Amino acid sequence: MTYSFPLFDLPPEAILHVLKSMDYGELIFISLLSERAKRAVESMNLYCIEASAVISNQISLVMDFDGTRVELRFTVDKERENQENGSLELPDKMELSISTSRSIEKWIGKGSCIKRWITHFNAGFHFSKFDCLQFDENASLFDIKELQIMFYSYDQLCILSDNGSDVKSILKHFPTRRLSFDNDVFNNLENPHPVLIQNYDELVIDPLFESPNTLQLDDLLIINSKIIEIYNMNWAEKELNRFLKHWMKGSNPRMERLSIYFFSQETLNNSKILKGIKYVEMPVEHTRWFKSCKGFEAVRGGHDFNRCDGTKATLTIRTNGICMLEMHVWYPHCVVEVREIEN
C-alpha cells in the first residue's frame, strides 16, 4: 500500500529534499501543478543540457537533460492544415512526451500557447536560448513573422526545406552566425552565392540523404565563413590540390577550419593532394591545440604549409570509419597558449 502526503505543507528544506529524489520527468509534472510548485523546482537550479526547436507542419520543442528527453509537440488539426488561403495560426494542441531510461510518459492538452510553454521551461530549467532552430518541410504553413517573434534567441539555424522561396524568407527573418543547410536547399536556391559569401562563424552543408554533395570548387572558393563543414563530398585529389593552391594565393581569407567528409570510403593519396606544394610533415605524436568559436581541439601530426602572406596551415587526413580531410589555419587568435590549457 502506498500513502500520499501534502508535499507543500512541509518546510522548505524538506520540500527540497523530496524534490531531489525525483527524476526530471517527475519534476516537470510537479512544476506544472502550481506557481508555488514551479518556484520550488526553479530553486533547485536544474539546467537543460541542450534545447532545440523544429518547425514543419507541426512545431516541436526538444529539451535534453541528464538521462531524460522532453519533447513538446504542437499540432494543428487536419482541417486547418489543409486550408488553402493564408498562413496558419500557431497551434495550441500539445503533446508532452517525457522519455527516461525507465519509461515514456505522455500528456495531451489544448489551449496553452507555445510562448507560455517556452517561458515555463526557460524559468524552470534555466536555458535562455535554443541551441538549434530547425526549419523542415512545410514550415511555410505558419506565419513567418509570428515565428520570428516566438523564436528570437537561438545559436544555430538549420534549414532542411527544399523550397527556394521559403529559404530566402527564413534567412531574411532569422539572422544567424551559424548556418547549416541540407544540400537540396543549396540546389534549389536560384543563386546560392549571396548565402555563401556571408560572414558566418560556421557554415555546414550536409546532404540529408546518402547522396554525393554537389558543391563545386568555385562555390567553395567564395565561402567566407570561419568554420566550414562539408559532408558527402565526392571530389578527387586533383580538386583538393587546386583548392589548396587557391588558398595559398589568398582565397577564403576568413577561413579558420575546413572539414570535408567524403562520400567514398577510398583512402586519399596525400602525395596527389600536396603535389607542387612545399610542406613539412609533422610527427604523429606532435600535438598542437587549436582554438575556434567551437572551443579547443587537438591537432596531431599533419602537413604544414604556408600561404603567400606567411600564414601557416595544417592539413590532416583521417580514415577511421569515414574518410575526412581537415585544414586548420594558424592565425594568432587560433593558437592556444599553454596557460589557456592549464586553466
TrEMBL record:
State the InterPro entries in the record: F-box_dom, F-box_Sdz-33, Zygotic_Embryogenesis-Asso
Location of the F-box domain: 4-47
For this protein, the record's Pfam families field holds:
F-box, FBA_2
Which first-to-last residue range defines the signal peptide?
none
Q: Read off the PANTHER family from this record.
A: CYCLIN-RELATED F-BOX FAMILY (PTHR22899), F-BOX ASSOCIATED DOMAIN-CONTAINING PROTEIN-RELATED (PTHR22899:SF0)
What name does the UniProt record give this protein?
F-box domain-containing protein
> Which species does the entry assign this protein to?
Caenorhabditis remanei
Taxonomic classification: Eukaryota, Metazoa, Ecdysozoa, Nematoda, Chromadorea
